[in-house]
User: Fold these one by one.
Assistant:
Number 1:
Amino acid sequence: MTAPTEQDARQMIAVVNSRNVDKIAELYAEDATFQVPNLETPLHGKTAIRGFHAGSFAAFPDWTMDVSRVYVTGNDIVIVNSVRGTHTGPLSQPNGQSVAPTNRKFVEDQMTRIVLNANGKVESLRSYGNPAELTRQLGLPK
């Protein structure tokens, strides 16, 4: 695999912004790890990652990632971004409970690190942000 470019990274984000969970799952290796600020522990495997995205897009049908900067070094990609959306669908919690829509909007600043494997698939994705701010913006209990 040749090293990814900034354009490759932006194309990956375009796929995520399409909210097509099957296409998103194709970006990941079978044994990939995935962690975003509101997850205490990483998800493991393509199936779990696909399920997370399906649930997130059900809760936030207008969910979008806006990219401000992309840095690429070898198979490492760092993206400075924000995510935004409106909570108009049920939101599944890690404890299995569901939170009714608040119809509130959120914007969360993040930094995301993606590591690609030798086949160009996402081996790991880790986003850093402030989950307490997301909870506050949505009016959810702490």
Note: The chain has a mean pLDDT of 94.
Number 2:
Amino acid sequence: MKLWQKVLVGFVIGTVLGLLFPQLAVLKPVGDLFIRLIKMLIAPMVFASLVVGASSIGDVRKLGRVGGKTLLYFMATTAVAILIGIVIALIIQPGAGFILTEVGEYEATSAPNVIDVFLDMVPTNILNSLAADNMLQIIVSALFIGIGATVIGQKGKPFLSFCNSLAEIMYTITGMVMELAPYAAAALMAWVTAISGVEVLLPLAKALIAVYIANILHAVIIYSGAVYFFAQMNPLHFFRGMFEALAVAFTTCSSAATLPVSMRNAQKNLGVPNEISSFVQPLGATINMDGTAIYMGVSAYFIAQVYGIPLGPQQYLMIILTATLASIGAAGVPGAGVIMLGMVLHAAGLPLDGILLIAGVDRIFDMIRTSMNILGDAAGAVVVAATEDGLET
């Protein structure tokens, strides 16, 4: 059996066993071990890959062009994603007829100052950034180092050779760790279904359905259209090529943890050159969160309905703008979307206590939104590679 087939079997077995035997929640450490092994690779792989990616592009003007295309693609697809989420929520009406009970109080996390966010992107100590897994700082430092190594020419080649070797080592270890994926998928799904059960889905079934439908539509319409229009790639080939990464994202709920697998799938299965994949996908794992944007739009509408608060055009616009910006700041780790949802609700004047209505099943929301996040990064890499005439067919 191929690895993706093994992962799918593990996913199904874990789901069934978790429902039948709730005590199997104790298997969670098996999945946690897999996630830790993947996370072990992230900082060195992203740093080495981006240094090599930036230097491989060579021309600083080309690097700026590739970066501009990447950011434009990410912002456009995220804005469309939140619009799709709100439209689906308006059609399904997820909060209609919901009887609100006491949900407690939620303490919001204050939104960071915009200037502080930009300043914090530049590290004062690169080693500290690597140790803390601060992805934005790692990306910024790696881009500067890659450009610098390119500018100095021959003197920079030994360092670039080291980074290239380090990146290849990380890719190889990723392949080794992925052999554990079927067992991790079974363990994590057994834990999720064991602690949640079927009944936990019922009160929020319509909201869950709205989020899943919006994400699937976004993938089928936007991502399929993007890879077909820009790269003349069969959408089925695209989705098949990313299946392993989708399975890891769905079970781990972490864009960062899925990144090594996602990059390997894009390069090996979709023909994205290493220098494009190494630039676009790590950047996307940090700032491109289409699934999170959809989740925030549907959740905001759901909470407004539950509290009986009508939304006007200004509030819809605020939700769209804030969700787009908040999704850029959402860290690629499990549960980050809940924190960013607090910013959206606050900006739209909606009660923050509503977060507690969905916090209990956030893991189930997180599965599809993380899958969509990494799929969007891969589609972006395909589109950028095609527009640079670099897609390997």
Note: Residues 102-109 have pLDDT under 50 and may be disordered.
Number 3:
Amino acid sequence: MSTYVRRATQVTALAVVAIMAPGGAAWAAAQTTPSAPSAKCAKANRRVGAEEKWVAKSQAALERTEKASASCTTKPVCDRFAIKIREEQERKAKREARLAKLKAAAATACATP
């Protein structure tokens, strides 16, 4: 093989590498996807989701009870509704406090790799 052919081959190879290098880096960057969340993070997020559902159910129950209490006609019935409303409010407050703790735990679990 002559010197001319070897140099032409080297120049061509370098040109191909020079053209492909920027595209190759972009391709490699595009191929890197964020890793799946850890098992602890996924579990914490599931617990947060479940607790959010319970908070929503508590809110709906409270609204139903308040709506029903608007139509009470006798004092004993109104007293029972008042007790039920107070219990629902307490239950909702506990659920919201638990949700806040779970969100903090999920943030901690998901922040650490």
Note: The chain has three helices and no strands.
Number 4:
Amino acid sequence: MKEAKIFNEWPQRYDRWFETPIGKLILYYESKLLLEMLRPKSGERILDAGCGTGVFTRCLLEDGPRFVGLDISFPMLFQAGKKLARYPFGMVQGDMEDLPFADNQFDKTISVTAFEFIVNARNAIDQLFRVTRPGGSIVVATLNSLSPWAARRKAAGEKGHPIFKNVIFRSPKEMNQLAPMTPLLKTAIHFQKHDEPLQAKKIEERGRSIDADTGAFLVARWEKPL
């Protein structure tokens, strides 16, 4: 799992980002959209593939589902385990492109900002479909290539940033092509990093009201056929 090495030194730094004023605002809007798309329910068994430090998993656990968090990086999983100790949350170290689960094991599956690091996204989607029961939902969130946030991170990668130098950002059109059926697509984070929080909230409300497809946080939801 050589890919895991680039994440192993990032757990604390990743979590600290969401403690900044703009990070807290981003976490609020992204979590809100994830809850809207995944609709977790009490008693459901849900896989969070590429769960990282569990930042988003925690908000999805509040309504009573049981989660399995999978990540390629053990330090990331360890951080998630500490954070989610009081929740019904199990951990598995593994690769999203070769999920270590039998078919139809989960009521729903979700992956948040992990597809950026997967070249063969179609294979990863196939894996999520495979382990999701018929009638279940598959939700994938990624950084939208149409957003200025993606452009900035791409530029940072070109300058040698260890996380972003091999990253792959996808557009709504590209996400639409990852599975045979058409997904529901929505975006959030229409404001920019430098925007003052009050102004950022106004920008976000406007972006959601017109259903803009250029928000930085792109979320797709597929329903697995019965």
Note: The CA atoms of residues 199 and 206 lie 11 Å apart.
